Amino acid sequence: MGREKPAERALLLLRSRLCDPSFVFNSFSDSSDSNYSKLKFIISSSVTEACNNSILLLGPRGSGKVAVLELVIRDLLLEYPDMITVIKLSGLLHSDDNCAFKEIARQLCMEHQLLFSKMASFDDNAQFMIAMLRECGLAHKTIIFVLDEFDLFAQGKQRLLYSLLDATQSVTSQAVVIGATCRLDADQLLEKRVRSRFSHRKLLFLPPTKEDWQRLLEHILLLPTESTLPQDYAVEFNAKLQNILADNRFKGIINTCMNIDSTVNHLLKFLFRAVSNMDLATGFLSLENFKAALSNIQRQPKLECIKDCSVLELYVLVCMRRLEIKEQNSYNFNSIMKEYKSVHDSCQTSDYYAQNVCLWAFEHLLQRELISFNDNRGNNQSIEFRPVKLLVSSHELHQGLKSYRSCPAILHKLLAG
Amino acid sequence: MGKEESPQIERRSTRHSSATISKNEAGTKSNEPLPPTVNDLFYGEEEKPISLDDVVSSFPGRRIQIIELMRVLGPVNCPMVPLFIYGDSSTGKTSITLQIFRHLNRPFVYSSCLTCYSPRILFESILNQLLLHRKSMANSYLSAKRCERPSDFVNFLREALISITSNLQGNSGKSGSKKLDRRASGNMIYLIFDNLERVREWDKSSIMLPFLLNLYDILKMPEVGLIFISNTSPDTYYSSMGYAEPTPVYFPDYKEDDLRQIFVKNQENKKLYSSFLDVVLKPFYRITRRVDELSTAFSQLYKKYCEPLSDLGVVPNEEMKRRLFSNLQPHIAPSMNEIFKVSSQPSTDIGATKEAKQKSSSKKSGLEVTDQLDLHMSTSAKYLLISAFLASRNPATLDASLFDSTGGSDSRKRKRKPSEKTSEQKEAAEQELLMKGPGTFPLERLLAIFQCITSVAEGSLEEEEQGSDGLRVQVGDNSLMSDVLLQLSSLCNANFIVKGVSCPLEGSTRYRSTICEDMALKVARSLKFPLSKYLYRR
């Protein structure tokens, strides 16, 4: 009883840490050549020197571009209160220019306690933004525009990007435009008139190295000894954790995890599952938790699907594979049935069913997305005649059959040729 | 099986009934229904939360998944990363999730992308639930907010979530008051998106899918948990822009033992049913593993199985089992081949029939129709069907020789053909036929064949008159022709003949017959029409 309470609180603490990117990326903020310091330097200098700037943050998804940016902005807001206004847009939501200007106007109005009109036109909103930029420039206030999923803003006519970056060319305004994107060639997507106004400052977010991972692990998982948690529990927890971290088997797990995907987000996902697996009765993390988490995350959906198939569905799959081996470039349900029949005629299997039953199995496979139609133009052909293809490789099929419980031996033989 | 889908329905009805009950009570005081409260976000107002053991025991074979889900959801107030539940249909994803929320007694918003079939409906249904808005006469059944774009939705959603979570926090603060103390619910709120795979087929799927999957990152609210439920695995969600992958939980299909437990669970005479399952489960398991489909098949077979028994409560002994088995055995194989025929009787399980109806192909409906063909189809419609079938199967170039004035088949031509072709060519042609399916034909050709075969049929009836009285036959044909177009359109509606796109070169609409050969033969037999004589075989 006495143990359960701190264990639950520790779990809560760890989980909220994992779900809070600003905590995770805090660990990178102290070193001088980190992206955090670079970004902070760029933005703070343009705030203090009252100049315009534009930056692109590039890096794979989950490498913490936005998280670091938010951390920087949070610190800058503390440092220079009343000098910074932040406008946040996301390409997923505001890729439409009209919508984007409206959102900018809305956020500006919110920030400056102005009345926002929903009815305002595109032109009104654009002019309002330019006017606000001028006003803020005169008052020595910087507006920071954060454009998440920057590449999506470059889809249409790029009017938003043009007017934002054009505004940064004038002396009266004081704006920083920050784009974050996964596409490393994002600046190549820009029109010429937009590209020429862009500063071409780019920050690359690389996945953390092995040492960084180690640091992150400790940063996230170790419990604070001075807190509401009982000290002896925290100390014991940390000692056990250090043991695990030093364990070679654990290093192996972490290595496989890194080999799949070495971004921070993936680590967080992995740790989240590990922490959720923690046994509340003992209250400590164990190596098994991490092992289970790895198997939870490392899914092989196609293989699982094959394992779930009924025997008849396997027959259909194997027949399809046989047709592919025969180099029939396109086939449909009827040709599969022909193959199925010939297989049955030559081997006398016990699993021979009527055509409509097979059609049903065929539809199951379509639903499981192990197979699919070649073209998704639903022209008025009935299912039997539409050409299909396998979505699993022959290797996966072999694997699947091997791990299938009580798989008919004949299927292996048929698949082999 | 009934239990598989019932929680969903139960939940809806409980919410609804709670609303109506409160209305009746309030009726004595005022006509206004009680304003919806934050309690509406919990599972069923009146129902007591159930224990975890109950959840586990009501879903046989799902212990691992339930524990996994419980772990990801975590104790009270735990933030969570987005969760992605996937597995084949009828593996209990939705019902287990909802039952777990009943057990945990935490607020959630459930919306299915199947019923909310467009972004706007989805957004508005979520907002309605969050804003505790109930469509009624007073607000002329409008939604709380009108919202079509994801950007508006995010703004509204954030507002609504903030107000709800602060409300929840307030509740847990003054826990002593009212009945809220039984709700140790914490301040998390969960959004459940069911049938996510449907979103891929929406018009705006290229925007909606990454939007939903990235919603957690967009909202940046740790007190919101997102749960996606999908029929298909995460790797089928391709998107050009990618997304942070949610943490997966997989629901595998039921194993044989699990199926046995599920089927025995709701039976009155468990011993008898399990001896029934001993017989049927294994062969059927080789065909399908879906509970819904198996239960429809079994319900029919079980009746057959019990037929010799007078008392259904009897505990079967070995000798009786053997007797019952020998009684049932002849029925198993045919029923296996008709496993998916939908029974017309009202069955207890909604899910199964729903599934089956959705999927029933034209072919299956064709089979069912054949049984009552004579009742539902006029003679001319049958002739039309046969001529459509012939027009689809036979090459147009052979029409003249097949339907010439002698009415017989041209034996000379047919003999010549095979010798001409090498076997290889023949195989290729066969392959092509398999691939291409029935051919298309213009309306004129259909009518010409129709006229030919009807004249032949009339001719065969009145053979002696035919030579002298050709005109009479013509008149007879005309009377048949009068409503032939009407018949054609009704056949099109019944999906026996498909109206195709118009041919770009000729500009006329082309038709295609979808019936299979068996069916055509059956129809021909009912007319005593020598179909095989006219069918060109390669």
Q: Tell me the distance between the termini of chain A.
A: 62 Å
Rg of chain B to the nearest angstrom?
A: 31 Å
How would you write the strand order of the largest sheet of chain A? 2-3-4-1-5
Mean pLDDT of chain A: 87
| Domain module tally of chain A | 3
- Estimated structural class of chain A: alpha/beta
On the 0 to 100 scale, the average pLDDT of chain B is 74
Q: What is the CATH T-level topology of the largest domain in chain B?
A: Rossmann fold
CATH architecture of the largest domain in chain B: 3-Layer(aba) Sandwich
Give the CATH class of the largest domain in chain B: Alpha Beta
From the spread of the alpha carbons, the general shape of chain A counts as flat
Outline the biggest β-sheet of chain A: 5 strands, parallel
Question: Quick one: CATH class of the largest domain in chain A?
Answer: Alpha Beta
Query: Beta-strand percentage of chain B?
Result: 5-15%
The largest pleated sheet of chain B is described as: 5 strands, parallel
Q: Which percent bin holds the helix content of chain B?
A: 55-70%
The fourth-level CATH homologous superfamily of the largest domain in chain B is P-loop containing nucleotide triphosphate hydrolases
**Rg of Cα set of chain A:** 29 Å
